[in-house]
Amino acid sequence: MCVDCRCGQSAPEPAVRRRLDLGERLLRRNDQQAAANRRRFAAAQLPVVNLLSGPGSGKTALLERLGRDWPRGAEPAAGPQAPGSGAPAGRPPMAVIVGDLATDNDARRLWAAGLAAVQISTGQACHLEAGMVERGVQALEQDGVPLAGLELLVIENVGNLVCPAAYDLGESLRVVMVSVTEGEDKPLKYAASFHGADLVLINKIDLLGAVEFDLDQCRRHIARVAPRARVVALSARSGAGFSALRAALGLGRDGGLDLGLDLVQAATPVLQP
Ligand SMILES: Nc1nc2c(ncn2[C@@H]2O[C@H](COP(=O)(O)OP(=O)(O)OP(=O)(O)O)[C@@H](O)[C@H]2O)c(=O)[nH]1
Ligand SMILES: [Mg+2]
Questions:
Q1: Quick check: is 54 in a domain?
Q2: Which residues contact residue 4 at a Cβ distance below 8 angstroms, ignoring those fewer than 6 apart?
Q3: Is residue 234 part of a domain?
Q4: Count of domains observed in the chain
């Protein structure tokens, strides 16, 4: 049972009701911090993506490929080379704050792909909160990666298609990923997570045939629960669909963002559980 976001707590017994009140206060505090994050990102004119999916859908693999394939010739952001720090030299002007319950495996993969990255270890919490993102931004800045030098900041949320949806992080774009190995019905089963999505990614399409995944049916399910979301089918393994992804993120061919900035001001609606 999650101690942070009340999943598994349904009976309105007095003790539970007190915990519900506490949960509501925590969510209110999160929303205030998210609003502060959003103001800060807007001041830096920085588009910020909150990337959600179940465990293992391929969030880190997608970001690794974006980092590796960032068009050469794009102006690298300043920052020292330091193994284990968030700032490899000559990296693309994109950074990642990645949340996991444990390990810094994902941050290490992202550093190896040439991206600035900081790992947030959430311990028992099954989602990132706005305060953790603020600390992640501070850690990036301490590593010599100021927001002002970035063109895109991605927050890779904890792998979980339930609880992260309730927590606004101050992002300008909410991206939800599902992979073909999970089945076509996930958008219907986890509708609350998909509901607030601006962009839905269907990953691992290189495995479509092997798992007999019905792409059209999945698209129909997504349209039911997230009618305003754009949908991109792709493979982080083969690179298929990445030009559509780059266009959907507003990434210009030279690596710069040419569409994303109008999203900076947009507040993503957040569903309360
Ligand atoms: N075949 C195939 N495998 C993929 C693809 N994308 C990711 N994978 C594999 O899926 C597994 C999980 O990928 P990750 O990138 O770690 O997934 P994640 O969503 O970041 O996982 P968590 O952070 O643990 O939630 C790894 O073995 C990847 O190599 C893809 O497009 N095709
Ligand atoms: Mg990951």
A1: yes
A2: 26, 124, 125, 126, 127, 129, 163
A3: yes
A4: 1
Q: Ligand 2 center to residue 17 CA distance, Å? A: 35
Q: Measured between alpha carbons, how far is residue 266 from residues 48, 106, 127 in Å?
A: 11, 28, 22
Atom 6, ligand 1: which residue's CA is nearest? 58
What is d(CA 248, CA 230) in angstroms, rounded to the nearest whole number? 8
Rounded (10°) CA dihedral 48, 203, 245, 233: -140
Domain that holds residue 62: 14-263
Q: Would you state the pLDDT for residue 161? A: 96
Is the separation of the CB atoms in 147 and 104 below 8 Å?
A: no
pLDDT tens-digit map of 88-138: 557 789 999 999 999 999 999 999 999 999 999 999 899 999 999 999 999
Q: Which atom of ligand 1 is nearest to the CA of 207?
A: 1
CATH of the domain at 78: 3.40.50.300
Which of ligand 1's atoms lies nearest the C-alpha of 177?
Answer: 19
Higher-confidence position of 1 and 230: 230
| Ligand 1 pocket residues where CB is under 6 Å | 53, 55-61, 106, 159, 203-204, 206-207, 235-237
pLDDT digits (tens, 9 = 90+) for 217-242: 999 999 999 999 999 999 999 999 99
Give the list of residues 6+ apart from residue 197 with CB closer than 8 angstroms, or none.
52, 174, 175, 176, 226, 229
Residue 272 falls inside a structural domain: no
Ligand 2 centroid to residue 64 C-alpha, Å: 10
